[in-house]
């Protein structure tokens, strides 16, 4: 009888220890979330403004002591704010993964994670000239009509800008219209070229522009907010969306400013792929890593991106994966 009492006493004590351990583990998780604090500075492509608004809200709800501070802009412009002006940035996100590869790495970052994709479209409003006539096959005839105003973002500031120009080169070959690229360039005045592609949306809404070259994700997001805005899809042969046409896209080229004044790089057409990194100018690596974990979670960040109309890649690919922080190395396994 005595032995049975001792046995039950031991079992009871073990149970208390196990429950106590579980409670402590739960408290550790809670404490980690409560203790995570500070500013998280994110510079991101302008086309990600709406999706990153959702990410900011959800992340701050999960970590109430964190303040996400976002700066949208042309990808090349925000990259240069890190490399040329030394801005303290915890997370840098580009609409073209090669911006980080060529302008930021290896001096200001040592890894680059590819996570999302897109395609080029033409946006317009119900009041745009020939709005009832434009299609994915006759758009270049419509845009080159007298009195039609169309625009794109600055190629040296924003990937959407140079992708617009590359698209025109591809269109000339695809439709077999000699001189089409030159004609599109000639009929697009400098005043219709803006630093960021999202600036063109306001011009569409006010009637200052009839048409603007944008990303499909932006088209979906803005059309949802404003029923007067619409967009037409373009053939895969020219919309820079398909790996199937990678070699064809590469036949289009444009000269862009390089890292230093007076330097230039030749940019070839290729499928649209977004990427992000953690610049070494950042001051809050701990919070940045938690944001990446949140973003790369299919049930959290990636889901929010897709719900906001931003397509994501099936698998995340990382250049310089060996340099990932230990807590993020799981994303490439």
Structural class: alpha/beta
What is the count of distinct domains? Answer: 2
Name the strands of the widest sheet in spatial order: 2-1-3-12-4-13
Number of strands: 13
CATH topology of the largest domain: D-Maltodextrin-Binding Protein, domain 2
Radius of gyration: 25 Å
Number of helices: 12
The helix-strand sequence is HEHEHEHEEHEHHEHEHEHEEEHHE
Main sheet properties: 6 strands, mixed
CATH superfamily of the largest domain: Periplasmic binding protein-like II
Assembly type of the chains comes to: single chain
* CATH structural architecture of the largest domain: 3-Layer(aba) Sandwich
- Average per-residue pLDDT, rounded, comes to 90
Shape: globular
List keywords for this structure.
333 residues; alpha/beta; D-Maltodextrin-Binding Protein, domain 2; 2 domains; globular
Please describe the topology of this protein.
Elements: H1 2-35, E1 38-45, H2 49-62, E2 66-73, H3 75-83, E3 91-94, H4 97-104, E4 112-117, E5 120-125, H5 139-143, E6 150-153, H6 159-175, H7 180-186, E7 193-194, H8 199-206, E8 211-215, H9 216-225, E9 229-233, H10 246-249, E10 253-257, E11 264-268, E12 273-277, H11 285-295, H12 301-307, E13 312-319
Parallel strand pairs: 1-2, 1-3, 6-7, 6-8
Antiparallel strand pairs: 3-12, 4-12, 4-13, 5-8, 5-9, 10-11
Helix pairs in contact: 2-12, 3-4, 6-7
């Amino acid at each position: 009888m005595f032995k049975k009492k001792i046995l039950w006493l031991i079992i009871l004590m073990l149970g208390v220890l196990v429950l106590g351990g579980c409670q402590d583990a739960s408290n550790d998780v809670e404490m980690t979330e409560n203790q995570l604090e500070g500013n998280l500075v994110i510079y991101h492509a302008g086309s990600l403004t709406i999706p990153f608004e959702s990410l900011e809200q959800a992340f701050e709800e999960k970590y109430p002591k964190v303040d996400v501070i976002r700066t949208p802009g042309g990808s090349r412009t925000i990259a240069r704010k890190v490399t040329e002006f030394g801005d303290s940035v915890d997370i840098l996100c580009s609409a073209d993964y090669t911006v980080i590869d060529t302008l930021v790495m290896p001096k200001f970052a040592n890894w680059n994670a590819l996570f999302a994709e897109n395609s080029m479209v033409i946006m317009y409003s119900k009041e745009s000239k020939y709005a009832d006539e434009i299609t994915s096959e006759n758009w270049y005839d419509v845009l080159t009509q007298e009195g039609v105003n169309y625009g794109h973002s600055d190629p040296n500031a924003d990937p959407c800008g140079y992708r617009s120009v590359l698209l025109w080169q591809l269109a000339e070959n695809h439709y077999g219209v000699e001189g089409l690229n030159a004609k599109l360039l000639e009929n697009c005045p400098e005043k219709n070229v803006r630093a960021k592609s999202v600036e063109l949306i306001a011009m569409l809404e006010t009637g200052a522009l009839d048409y603007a070259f944008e990303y499909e994700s932006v088209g979906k997001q803005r059309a949802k907010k404003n029923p007067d805005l619409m967009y037409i899809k373009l053939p895969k042969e020219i919309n820079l969306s398909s790996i199937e046409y990678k070699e064809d896209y590469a036949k289009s080229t444009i000269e862009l400013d390089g890292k230093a004044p007076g330097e230039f790089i030749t940019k070839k057409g290729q499928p649209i792929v977004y990427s992000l990194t953690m610049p070494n100018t950042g001051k809050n690596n701990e919070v940045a890593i938690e944001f990446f974990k949140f973003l790369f979670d299919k049930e959290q960040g990636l889901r929010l991106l897709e719900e906001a109309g931003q397509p994501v890649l099936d698998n995340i690919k990382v250049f310089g994966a060996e340099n990932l922080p230990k807590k993020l190395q799981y994303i490439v396994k």
